[in-house]
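tl;dr need the bound structure. longer version: we got a ligand (calcium ion) that a collaborator sent over and nobodys looked at where it sits. i said id run it. heres the input, straight from their email, havent touched it
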Amino acid sequence: MTPGVKVWSATPGLLSEGPRWHEERQELLWVDILGRQMHRGTLSPHGALERVETISVDRHIGAVAPADGGGYVLAAGAGFLFIDDAGSVCELAQPEADRTDVRMNDGACDPQGRFWAGTMAYDESPGAGALYRLELDGSCTTVLTGLTISNGIGWSPDASTMYLSDSGTGCVDAFRFDGSSGAISDRRTVVRIDQPGVVPDGLTVDEEGGIWVALWNGGAVNRYAADGSLLATVQLPVERPTSCAFGGPDQDTLFVTSARADLDDDALGRQPLAGRVFAIDGLGVRGLSCLPYRGRTPQSSGGECYTRNGAA
Ligand code: CA
């Protein structure tokens, strides 16, 4: 295995995704999209996984973000969910409520605390995906349509640029980002993956502005400069890394999730660690903090969730 790469999670997920370091609670959040689970992992003083708490819901979870004031916001199924600290689940905006052919995929919060998340069709139909923004008042705005597999989202350290990967087109695009309004403009492609079958999946941005992109079917995470030039490649012992995020007490460990679903016996024989979460140290750069959702939630407004574990 590449020096510095360690197997971190004890068990594999089907489609482990969306690692996020919750700095305030010093825990790693991640999801299993197909397993319909959100995980919270605490670390030992040596950085090993200490304990995992898991919350299951009744729909596919694309992404999670911590909520300011407690609890977690999820992009799941046809829209957004909130899970309070007791594990109760509430529906927030449901922009795709009238469709069963699409689901929420990756998402992340911007520096102002809005939660962005995109969709994809289950059959990966070109152009069937959209990008949504959960506003601070709980309403939902359609930001982009015509995406295919809306995936990793991140912001440059000065928050002037937003990055979005689309696994359907194989591109990571950059936009000028207006923090006060949340508007994006001046779309341009910064990374185009041209290896056959390899596509960009989740991404994160480090404090130097480097863009770390998980390469689905590429068995690696690449670091790109803001102009799209390739700066580094870290090989992983699995073909399908799905996303990455910096975390740990010093924000300098890169956590990488991976997928196991749909691999046949031969593929699993070659990569028995598929589905695990990996931790990579020694990269020499720190990440930006995972940003929380700062909008209104049932917990922050003193309300109560009306379902438990999605069993509505
Ligand atoms: Ca993804």
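gonna send this back to them w/ a short note. The pocket of calcium ion is lined by residues 17, 105-106, 151, 201-202, 242-243 (CB under 6 Å).
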